[in-house]
Automatic annotation (TrEMBL), chain A:
Biased composition (Acidic residues): 85-104, 430-442, 662-672
Keywords: Nucleus, Phosphoprotein
Protein name: U3 small nucleolar RNA-associated protein 14 homolog A
Extent of Basic residues compositional bias: 1-12
Biased composition range(s): Basic and acidic residues: 65-75, 505-516, 529-546, 560-594, 843-858, 868-879
Organism: Anisodus tanguticus
PANTHER family membership: U3 SMALL NUCLEOLAR RNA-ASSOCIATED PROTEIN 14, U3 SMALL NUCLEOLAR RNA-ASSOCIATED PROTEIN 14 HOMOLOG A
Residue ranges, annotated region (Disordered): 1-139, 192-213, 415-447, 505-594, 620-692, 704-733, 843-879
Keyword Nucleus in annotation: yes
Organism phylogeny: Eukaryota, Viridiplantae, Streptophyta, Embryophyta, Tracheophyta
Principal cellular location given in the protein's record: nucleus
UniProt keyword Phosphoprotein, yes or no: yes
Gene Ontology CC: small-subunit processome
UniProtKB/TrEMBL annotation, chain B:
Organism this protein belongs to: Anisodus acutangulus
Domain BING4 C-terminal: 356-436
Subcellular location field: Nucleus, Nucleolus
Keyword Flavoprotein appears in the UniProt entry: no
The protein's name in its UniProt record: BING4 C-terminal domain-containing protein
Length: 879, 530
């Protein structure tokens, strides 16, 4: 054995620098081959290493490359698993040192000399320095050695070698011997002997999962027992119809005094205040009559004076400022104010330039003003003053007033201008129109109408004179086309001439009229008309544009003509409301229907009184009532748009519009009347009640004879309707039959069977009916879909039988059907809880499990409510 | 002759047996308030449900007991009645005799008002009995405060007035006039003309539903909601002209008697009559409902008055006699009138066996048009061709009024409050049904119910079984090889399965389609058309 050990050591040392190397792990198969029984202990790791150790004892030689024999292999200096020479492991238990002492000595002898020498020198040096024995410094070295020999500390699983070998084994007897003669020795020995006698092999501990399972089971049993104590209280809560969570009604402080008494200063500030308030002196002073408080309230004379001075200064400053403001306010000079205003504006402008925010604000303000203006029309001569002046007549006024009025209008235009600017499409037109407007507003308002008429006249004459060249080529040059064109042109010329005449006549009329008429109204009409004119103005131009289209199909021509006439009539009637009816669109539509007649009619209309025009329009539009309605509606619209027009218009308006409205009303009336008549007719036809004839009367007198049969029949019908009779099996010719055979046999058996089944089913259904046994009654069993929502579609959850459910809902629980004392209990919810209350987890409390919750009103009480006692008397009344 | 008139008599008390008597009595009343038996809880398997129901029943019991107690002590008045002394018959007792016996206030309720000009009068009381509306056929309408006999309003509409009814309170009333019914306010202002109704013969107001029901010359039945003005329904009876119509106070069902002897019952939500019954071989002349809704009286031209049990639709009793007008009192007395003769039947024994109780004849030649008991009073109002009269019928009115139901001494504030309450409690028209206690119960199963999943599965199984068991014909040339037979059987099974599977797929598809709520459906990706 010693030999092997030696060998082992040698082998270890032979590695030189490789002294610490452990053997490689061998696979199990190899181990088997080597016939090394694998011992299983708790830790596989240790076991393996052990076996490896064993293995190394049996190993014969060293690998050739490692032995460096014959220098056949290149020396590899440093393997990966090699530790550096200077490596020192500190992690070594000191017990090993004792056991391995003799080993170390021997080992040291044949360990590598250099190192030994080194170490020896070093220790000697130390010895000399410290004066301690060498052994004291040898410790490290020894440790190192131990690590080299045994990688594991000694333990029951890793016994030291001597123990394994048997000679150094310690028995219990050995341990007991020294105790011989001591006090408890006999006792110990007895127990030892008993143990030896009874000694049984100790079972290996259970596998971990099994162990855990057992633990769990035990824990479960324990916990189950533990949890059962909750059962009664849980049961009680579950059975309780209502659970209350309104514990702790104690609100705490109810008075200010109580709250302040509890107050404790926390922040610095509060503490400071508290220290001042609770100052002993102050408190004392308060407690006495408070006279000493004044004493405490010391202020120096300088302070007071300073304060007074400051106050006086401020007062005087304020006063001066006030005076100044008063004076400025009193200044009546307009120039001054204007300058002031300008100044302010300038400042604002500056602000705008510099500050985008201000600019934005300004824009907003402007927008708002504009909106306001549009809303209120404040500057559109709607003020009392303006009205009065206009009523009197503008030309009677002096220059200043007129200017003021103009100014106002300008302001209105200015304020509401932005809207016009927005419509870019018509900007050019507008500009010209605005010129017109300016013209109109510049004092010559009264002539505006005349001017307009003249303009229109000029334009019509232009049209009349400006003969177009007839096209020399193309389709239009064909002779019949040319003829047609000529004809049309002539007609158009006639029209224009007519219109021209009318212009002139109306011009004259107007000039006559203008004299008596007040100027003010003219201004308004002028303005308003100009507004309209805006739309009309491009139209004469358009006419020229459309002149290419002039020779087109009759429709387009009619259209243009109609438009033309419309325009002419409008222009002619600029000052009356009549134009309202000739909305160009409406006219166009109508003209599509019958343009030829329409021309004339419109001419007539133009000349006729307004009421008549509308009438005729209605006639002409009779083809399509809808269109008529359209136009009339439009007319109405325009009317409403012009509702704010001048007084003269307002005078004419009713005259104009009334008939129209009436017309419409009549129309609608007649319509509805027709319907009503229809309705009456239908009702008349529906009900076929007649005065009973003689025969009927007689029959009724002797009615007793057949009413029962009638009723029987009726009932049968009703039943058939509700539960239809199955169809009789019919043989369709050509289906299910080839020859006469089928006919002779009758319908197939399955058909008959089906029929019989259906019949039986019907019989059963009839028997189930409520009126099955009542000959004189028919009870309808039709479903009422609307009433279905009043029933539950399915049985609600905890119920399993319909009967029980219906019995449970038989009692109404509302306050109308129950005494006041019973209602709260009947409608109490399952959980009573005030909002904001924190529901605490359930606390354990002793509950008698056999006691039934008697007080249903608060069976599951967590904490009983004091105020509940009012229900008590009601409870006591139960028999 | 002894006339025993018990009006308001305190309970007789016998100290020895009072406790027993009281407890018995209380039990009786309690039973009434329990509204039937509770479920048999012991038979329930579900312990939890059992517990819950036990709690509920207990509460019900307490409530009923409290109600019984309240009734016992808060409703002390008991109705009196006439009792014959020995062989004396109650119907021989004349009104004069009664008047001499009763107190002055009661005797004042006996009067005749003669208004000879405006034809037969029809009467209508408010449910509290405080106000009466009388309408003469020739256009005279009067609203009378019956407490102080003060005519609140009289108006002459100058056309035929066929009927008059109060709406929810005395503030409004509707009158069926020559062409249309009109609604007037208490002070006679015409509020509405209900043109849609046409020439109405009879009006009824459904108090809980706020519906004005009318039947017109053409036998069209119309329901109009008076709160919204909506025409709830328009039904054609198709049984001709009639002016016999009465609403069942229990369930709101409207009964109409027809000339063919039939009687039909209607609700606004179904076009067909709920019940149609043949009551008389001749035309039905009058109709009345008992306040509890279980009894109905009809009178036919063939000199018969029938009393029906509406729970079974069977005749309980047939009384002889012509009858032009019928009315049940609150206590269940039945007044009948023909010509100038008024007869009152009563079931004093409580066995629903009506016998003659009182008779009265108005002055000869007067034709009675309408009899109406005044609620909460022992008074019968009779409208006849020469005005109206009022007679005393002891035991007809309910002696205790519940101010929550109807208060004869209602102040205007109470009236206003009640109006609001009743509007809030207004019932939708579909709650009118034959048995309103069934509301809230499980919906009656449809006749043609869809088969359940199990049934479908069972059916499929059966079909598969059948397909498997089809006997195979023996065929030649290798067509009966086992493999062939197996294949054929397999095919047969597939074929049998197919319709069921298809149905299933269809259903699934449908459910897939309808799964999303409407608002989200537009987000569903459309399947690309392949």
């Amino acid at each position: 054995m010693a030999e092997t050990k030696r060998k082992n050591k040698k082998q270890r040392s032979s590695g030189g620098g490789v002294s610490k190397r452990k053997g490689p792990r061998l696979p199990n198969a190899m181990l088997k081959e080597l016939q090394i029984p694998k011992r299983y202990t708790e830790s596989d790791d240790e076991d393996n290493n052990d076996s490896v150790n064993d293995l190394y004892e049996y190993e014969e030689g060293i690998a050739q490359e490692e032995s460096r024999k014959n220098r056949r292999f290149d020396p590899v200096e440093n393997f990966q698993y090699e530790l550096p020479d200077q490596f020192e492991d500190e992690n070594v238990s000191s017990d090993e040192e004792d056991g391995d002492d003799d080993d170390e000595d021997g080992r040291r002898g044949d360990n590598d000399e250099e190192e030994e020498e080194d170490d020896g020198r070093h220790s000697r040096l130390l010895q000399e320095i410290t004066g301690l024995p060498t052994d004291a410094f040898d410790g490290k070295k020894k440790k190192n050695d131990v690590i080299i020999s045994e990688a594991y500390s000694e333990s029951e699983y890793n016994p030291s070698r001597d123990i394994l070998d048997g000679d150094g084994r310690i028995s219990i007897q050995d341990l007991l011997d020294p105790l011989h003669g001591k006090s408890d020795y006999s006792k110990l020995r007895k127990s030892m002997s008993r143990m030896e006698k009874k000694s049984m092999p100790i079972h290996a501990p259970l596998a971990k999962p099994d162990q855990e399972r057992l633990d769990r089971k035990a824990a479960y049993d324990f916990m189950q027992k533990d949890v059962t104590k909750w059962e009664p209280s849980v049961k009680r809560n579950r059975e309780a119809p209502t659970i209350y969570f309104d514990e702790d009604k104690d609100v705490g402080f109810s008075t200010v005094g109580a709250i302040t008494a509890e107050f404790e200063p926390r922040t610095d500030f509060e503490k400071k205040i508290a220290s001042l308030v609770n100052d002993h002196e102050v408190v004392e002073a308060h407690r006495k009559d408070g006279a000493r408080l004044l004493e405490l309230n010391k202020i120096s004379v300088e302070d007071v004076r300073e304060r007074q001075d400051q106050l006086a200064k401020m007062k005087s400053l304020l006063f001066r400022h006030e005076m100044k403001a008063k004076r400025v306010k009193k200044i009546k000079s307009k120039v001054y104010h204007r300058l002031l205003k300008k100044d302010r504006l300038k400042q604002a402008g500056k602000a705008i330039e510099t500050d985008p925010e201000a600019a934005k604000e300004q824009a907003m303000k402007q927008e708002f003003k504009r909106a306001e203006e549009r809303l209120t029309l404040k500057h559109k001569n709607s003020s009392k003053w303006a009205k009065r002046i206009l009523k009197r007549g503008l030309d009677l006024q002096d220059e200043g007033t007129r200017a003021a009025i103009n100014e106002q209008l300008n302001q209105h235009a200015l304020l509401s201008r932005k809207a016009n600017n927005m419509k870019e499409s018509s900007s050019s037109e507008e500009s010209s129109d605005e010129d017109d407007l300016d013209e109109a507003s510049d004092g010559s308002d009264q002539n505006a109408a005349v001017k307009l008429l003249r303009k229109a006249k000029d334009k019509t004459t232009q049209v009349l004179e400006g003969d177009e060249e007839l096209p020399a080529s193309g389709v239009l040059s064909l002779p019949f086309m040319v003829r047609g064109l000529k004809r049309r042109k002539e007609a158009a010329d006639e029209e224009t001439k007519l219109a021209l005449e009318e212009y002139e006549s109306s011009l004259k009329e107007l000039e006559d009229k203008n004299e008596p008429k007040t100027q003010g109204t003219n201004i308004f009409t002028g303005r308003r008309v100009f507004g309209d004119k805006k739309k009309q103005a491009p139209e004469p131009n358009k006419k020229k544009v459309t002149s290419d289209n002039y020779y087109g199909d009759s429709d387009s021509e009619g259209e243009t003509d109609a438009r033309e006439t419309g325009i002419s009539s409008r222009e002619e009637n600029n000052f009356s409301e009549r134009e309202v009816h000739f909305d160009p669109n409406a006219l166009r539509e109508e003209s599509e229907i019958s343009h030829d007649s329409l021309f004339k009619s419109f001419d007539d209309i133009a000349r006729d009184t307004n009421s008549k025009t509308s009438y005729e329009v209605s006639i002409f539009a009779a083809d399509s009532r809808k269109k008529m309605n359209d136009s009339s509606v439009k007319g109405k619209k325009t009317k409403s748009a012009n509702a704010k027009s001048a007084t003269s218009l307002q005078i004419t308006e009713p005259v104009v519009n009334k008939p129209d409205g009436e017309e419409i009303d009549e129309d609608s009336d007649t319509d509805s009347g027709g319907e009503m008549v229809d309705g009456i007719l239908t009702t008349g036809t529906k009900s076929t009640y007649e005065i009973p004839s003689q025969e009927e009367l007689i029959r009724r007198a002797f009615a007793g004879d057949d009413v029962e049969d009638d009723f029987e029949r009726e009932k049968q019908d009703a039943l058939n309707e509700e539960i239809p009779e199955p169809e009789k099996p019919i043989l369709l010719p050509g289906w299910g039959q080839w020859t006469n055979i089928q006919k002779k046999r009758g319908p197939p058996s399955w058909m008959l069977e089906e029929h019989d089944n259906a019949k039986k089913k019907r019989e059963e259904a009839l028997k189930k009916r409520k009126d099955a046994n009542l000959n004189h009654v028919i009870i309808s069993e039709k479903r009422d879909k609307k009433a279905e929502k009043l029933h539950t579609p399915t049985l609600p959850y905890p119920f399993t039988s319909q009967e029980v459910f219906e019995q449970s809902i038989r009692m109404p629980i509302g306050p109308e059907f129950n005494p006041v004392t019973a209602v709260p209990a009947l409608i109490r919810p399952e959980v009573v809880k005030r909002s904001g209350i924190i529901i605490k987890p359930i606390k354990f409390e002793e509950v008698n499990p056999h006691e039934r919750a008697q007080d249903h009103k608060r069976g599951g009480v967590q904490k009983k409510k004091g105020g509940k006692s009012k229900d008590k008397p009601a409870k006591n009344t139960t028999v | 002759m002894v006339v025993k008139v018990e009006k308001i008599t305190p309970k007789k008390s016998n100290p020895a047996t009072t406790d027993e008597v009281i407890s018995e009595e209380m039990d009786m009343i309690k039973k009434k308030y329990l509204r039937g038996e509770g479920a048999d809880l012991k038979a329930l398997k579900d312990k939890k449900l059992q517990g819950q129901l036990a709690v509920k029943e207990d509460l019900y019991g307490k409530s009923a007991a409290a109600a019984a107690k309240a009734e016992k002590w808060l409703m002390p008045s008991e109705g009196g009645y006439l009792e014959g002394d020995g062989i004396e018959k109650t119907w021989r007792i004349k009104q004069d005799a009664i008047a001499s016996e009763v107190d002055i206030l009661s005797s004042r309720k006996q009067f005749d008002i003669v208004l000879p000009d405006f034809g037969p009068y029809t009467l209508e009381f408010t449910p509290s009995g405080r106000y009466m509306a009388a309408a003469g056929r020739k256009g005279h309408i009067a609203i009378v405060d019956m407490q102080n006999m003060n005519a609140i309003k009289e108006l002459q509409v100058r056309e035929t007035v066929r009927d008059v009814v109060f709406l929810h309170n005395e503030q409004f009333f509707a009158a069926a006039q020559k062409k249309y019914p009109y609604i007037y306010s208490r002070d006679g202002t015409e509020l509405h003309c209900l043109k849609e109704h046409g020439a109405v013969l009879k009006l009824q107001f459904l108090r809980n539903h706020f519906l004005l029901a009318s039947i017109n010359k053409f036998g069209q039945l119309r329901y109009q909601d008076v709160t919204t003005g909506q025409m709830v329904s328009n039904l054609r009876t198709g049984l001709g002209r009639t002016d016999v119509m009465q609403v069942n106070p229990f369930n709101g069902v409207l009964a109409v008697g027809h000339s063919g002897g039939t009687l039909s019952m209607w609700k606004p939500t179904s076009a067909a009559p709920l019940v149609k019954m043949l009551c008389h071989p001749g035309p039905v002349t009058a109709l009345a409902f008992h306040p509890n809704g279980h009894l109905m009286a009809t009178a036919g031209m063939e000199r018969k008055i029938k009393i029906w049990d509406l729970r079974k639709f069977e005749v309980l009793q047939t009384l002889p006699g012509h009858c032009k007008a019928l009315d049940f009192s609150q206590k269940g007395l039945l007044a009948t009138a023909t010509g100038s003769f008024v007869q009152v039947f009563g079931d004093l024994s409580g066995s629903q066996n009506y016998s003659r109780y009182m008779t009265h004849s108005v002055a000869k030649g007067y034709q009675v048009k309408k009899v109406a008991f005044r609620p909460y009073e022992d008074v019968l109002g009779i409208g006849h061709s020469m005005g109206w009269s009022s007679i005393l019928i002891p035991g007809s009115g309910e002696p205790n009024f519940d101010s929550w139901v109807a208060n004869p001494f209602e102040t205007s504030k109470q009236r206003r409050e009640k109006e609001v309450h009743s509007l809030l409690d207004k019932l939708p028209p579909e709650t009118i049904m034959l048995d309103p206690t069934k509301i809230g119960s499980v919906r009656p199963t449809r006749k043609k119910e869809k088969p359940t999943k199990e049934e479908i599965e069972a059916e499929m199984e059966a079909a598969i079984e059948a397909a498997k068991n089809i006997p195979m014909k023996k065929k030649t040339k290798g067509r009966s090889k086992p493999s062939k037979i197996a294949k054929k059987k397999q095919e047969a099974v597939e074929k049998a399965k197919k319709p069921f599977l298809e149905q299933h797929m269809k259903k699934r598809k449908l459910t897939d389609e309808t799964q999303l709520p409407k608002s989200l459906e537009r987000f569903v990706r459309k399947k690309a058309v392949a």
